[in-house]
Specification:
There is one protein chain. The protein is an all-alpha fold. The chain is built from 22 helices and no strands. The longest helix is centred in the last third of the chain and has 34 residues. The protein is globular and about 70 Å long.
Length: 453
Amino acid sequence: MPIEFLYVAAVFAVALVGFTLLKRPMYECMLAAFIVLVAITGSWMQSWSFIWSAMTDSSLYVIIVFIISASLLAKTTVIDGFIAIILSLFGRVRGGAGLVAVIGSTYMGSLSGSGPGNVASTGVFTIPAMKHSGFPPHLAANVEAHSSTMGNMIPPSGMIATAFAILDKLYPKTYTISQYWLLLWGVAFWFIVQRILTLYFLCHYYKVEPMKKEEIPNLKDSLRHGWKAILLPVIVFLPFILTSTYNAWFKKRLGVGSSSFSNSLLLFIPALIVVVAILMSDSKTRQKLSLPEIFKDISDSMMKVVPTASLVFFAYCVSNLLVTLGIEAAIGKFIASLNMSLLALALILPLFTAVLGMLIPGSTQVKIFGGIIITVIAAAGGNPMLACAMLPCICGAMHGVTPPYCACVYIGMGIAGADLVSTLKNCMVWIGFHYLLSVIVMMGWLPLVGIVS
């Protein structure tokens, strides 16, 4: 067995002991795991590079600005207007606000291709609406987080392009990008259905009832008083729609800076939303949200921001170190040497990439591990194109929601004001259903459009 398995085991052991036995916060556990991993691998001289890489990851700062902006938006009357419109339209449906989150975040994810960015940009609207309609905070956080991971599974995500490049290298001129995209939509359809059914099941479990008729806002009144609120999602979505639709145009003019431009959007937009929301609010609210009051709200928000941001930061440090150790390549070769059946691979690979996703970014898994997954599944009699289409599902989507890394869940938790334990317990239910569907799809037991032998 490769020694890399011991590195992963060491990280989990430290985190588990610290969190369950010593009752320490998870961010302290991840810091301890990073120190232990540096010690047992003798990587002291390179440790600063792992820290610096985590410090310069834009996702970390997206978490901070969106949690702060969510707190400020809650003080405005505009966000109340947006919530009233959602409840007017979907309040009669059990978990209707959650259904808005599933559909809206899936669409938004197909534009941004970023799970954490998707939670941050859409969660500031959908999570308050879910809480107002009776969702427990931890359920609202998970609905948004697991819906937002669809961004990694629907074109034109960068991870999808990486996966197809691997497939094309293994099987030159065998499959076309149009065939591949069609199959991805076919796979995504079943995962959207799975999320809707999971939402329905959990709404029954948590007794999230449809709103009483007398409590549902009148749609005409909601639109008359809150029509300005509709402009806020437009402000969020429009930049992503433009960068997605005119991606080639931006690349031609910005060159290598086009990726930085996309990242900066997620940092700039929340501030713009808050400013617009304050200007759109009534005069009484604007007077309350003076500069001293805004600074006080930001200061109070730090109590939510610091634990979440620290946890993600130290998880990034651990991830950077593990990637440098070449852990995925070693483990991949080990799996390839086992010569397992297709059913065994379908059962083990999604589970294994979920475990890797606890510590290692999904895009990195696809780059290093994708070729091995496609090869071993094809050798066992599986469809290589389907195996490639499943890479974003079992690597990218799972990475954003499997603790202790789970940036998507932490962002949703911060916006919802949910506690960590309840959020992670509920998260495991979503992960379980995602895993089961991954096995079923990989086995080819569901009809899929675009499948090519």
